[in-house]
Design goal:
mainly alpha, 25 helices, single chain, 0% strand
């Protein structure tokens, strides 16, 4: 149905409905789900984050934030070779921080940056490729609508996924800047240079982007400070960008109604796709297909990394024909059970015991994590304890009412890289240190890491021929440029993305460094 050009939401809905009829030999279960699934899907509190982020992005455009970001970046980078293109990428990254949509980021920044790039003699194919690639930062740099939907599908913490996306997002922007630098050195005639802007004007341009920093700080900072949930943060962001747009004169009664209408249409489209995916997933769950595939993969003898690479390659190929949201909703119900059954060994039982023991000892009054770390280092090096460390040992031992020598044995065991025995875990009153807790932690870390990798390869699909959605959006704004010229130039950015995927696969801690477990 998808290849017959039937809308993806309708394709999944019809397939799931007919599949349920066939599996249950009747219409009672499918029609019952038609009522219950619709209500449970659309009444989900987590999904209300989607219209809020869409509205926030629309208000940000009306408030002139995209122009302010581009002018600030252009002032600092434009005098360099390829600098205006680099400024466009920087502005896309900044706008992506207040707009969770790749297509919206590409379209908005295209209207702002294309005239400037034409003005300074940039080649049409290079210009459109830069903005199409820069637009993909909208779904990687938090907040991200696609990341929200992924979190809901795999039942993971949205805030943790946002946090995990920060460093890959920064690496993405820097990779695109490097790709631009290489391109203009290979083809110097295709990139221009603008006159150097005085420092007074540069600093003045930075003052104008305070609304972006304020909204981003309020939304993301508020989420991680515990002031509000991600959904509430999205509402705060929408209100903040709306007030800024009103203050700047971009939000009137007419544009407000238009913003609500555009947001409602986009939300309806996304929600219908989600409903179709819910029926499709229900059919899959009833037939046990994902579990069967996961069991087959587990018995295949392939290493976890080999299976991960095959899945990522599949996404790269599929991205040439489908949009990002459709890919996520269609494939995650099948691939996530497979990934969930694989052991990447991110956290061992020794790691878990060490982390929980550190937490327990640092929870003692007047004992800090730094003190516990110094004790651990002293035992690891075999040195003698100073007076402060001896006092800390006494405080910990007294708090937990340990037998003499028990705390010494705990530190010695941890220093030797061994698991704590039962008496030692009981002495520290440790909880959540069994095999079940370890499996849950590793499952969460795999879900977050896999989600960021999927987001990146899905992002590559937005700029790869023949169906790169961002390429079509930007090329439609630059009608004098041949699509083949855009295809040629965008390959430099695709190469940057692929190198980033390799880097994150080889070094998972780049993604997981800020994730607490």
């Amino acid at each position: 149905m998808i290849f017959l050009r039937v809308p993806i939401g309708l394709s999944m809905f019809v397939t799931g409905l007919i599949g349920l009829v066939m599996v249950t030999d009747g219409t009672q279960v499918p029609f019952g789900r038609l009522k219950s699934e619709t209500f449970t899907t659309f009444s989900s509190y987590s999904l209300s984050i989607i219209p809020m982020f869409l509205l926030m992005g629309h208000f940000a455009t009306l408030g002139g934030m995209s122009q302010a970001l581009f002018k600030a970046a252009e002032g600092w980078l434009g005098h360099r070779k390829g600098g205006v293109a680099m400024a466009a990428v920087g502005a896309c990254a900044g706008f992506g921080a207040i707009c969770g949509s790749s297509l919206a980021t590409a379209a908005t920044m295209g209207r702002v940056a294309l005239p400037e790039m034409r003005r300074y003699g940039y080649d049409g194919g290079f210009s459109t490729a830069v903005l199409a690639a820069g637009g993909t930062l909208g779904i990687l740099i938090p907040p991200s609508i696609v990341l929200v939907i992924y979190a809901i599908l795999v039942e993971q913490n949205i805030a943790k996924l946002f946090l995990a996306a920060f460093i890959p997002g920064i690496i993405a922007a820097l990779g695109y800047v490097l790709a631009i630098s290489i391109y203009v050195r290979l083809f110097p005639e295709r990139g221009g240079v603008m006159p150097r802007v005085p420092y007074a004007e540069r600093f003045a341009s930075l003052v104008k982007i305070w609304p972006v920093l304020m909204v981003f700080g309020a939304v993301v900072g508020g989420i991680y400070a515990g002031w509000f949930t991600p959904t509430e943060g999205a509402a705060v962001g929408a209100l903040g960008t709306g007030l800024i747009a009103w203050f700047n004169g971009g939000l009137t009664r007419v544009t407000l109604i238009e913003s609500f209408t555009v947001t409602a249409r986009a939300t309806a489209m996304i929600f219908f796709i989600i409903l179709g995916a819910a029926f499709y997933n229900g059919f899959l769950a009833l037939t046990q297909v994902p579990q069967g595939i996961a069991a087959w993969v587990g018995d295949s003898g392939f290493s976890p990394y080999m299976i991960l690479i095959l899945i990522l390659v599949f996404y790269l190929v599929l991205g040439c024909f489908m949009d990002s949201l459709s890919m996520i909703l269609l494939t995650i119900p099948i691939f996530w059970p497979v990934m969930q059954g694989l052991d990447f060994g991110f956290v061992s039982m020794v790691d878990l015991h060490g982390a929980r023991a550190m937490e327990a000892m640092a929870a003692v009054p007047d004992i800090t994590s730094g003190m516990v770390s110094s004790l651990q280092e002293a035992f690891a090096s075999g040195g003698t304890l100073d007076a402060a460390q001896t006092a800390a040992m006494g405080a910990i031992q007294g708090h937990y009412e340990m037998a003499d020598g028990m705390l010494n044995s705990i530190f010695t065991t941890l220093a030797n890289g061994e698991e704590l025995v039962r008496d030692q875990t009981r002495a520290l009153e440790l909880r959540r240190v069994n095999a079940g807790a370890l499996a849950r932690i590793n499952s969460e870390l795999v879900a977050i890491w896999f989600g960021i990798l999927v987001l990146i390869v899905v992002e590559v699909g937005l700029i790869t021929p023949p169906v790169g959605m961002n390429l079509f959006i930007i090329n439609a704004m630059e009608k004098t440029t041949k699509m083949t010229d855009t295809y040629k130039a965008v390959m430099f950015f695709v190469a940057s993305d692929l190198l980033r995927v390799v880097l994150l696969v080889l070094f998972p801690m780049i993604t997981l460094i800020f994730i607490t477990w």
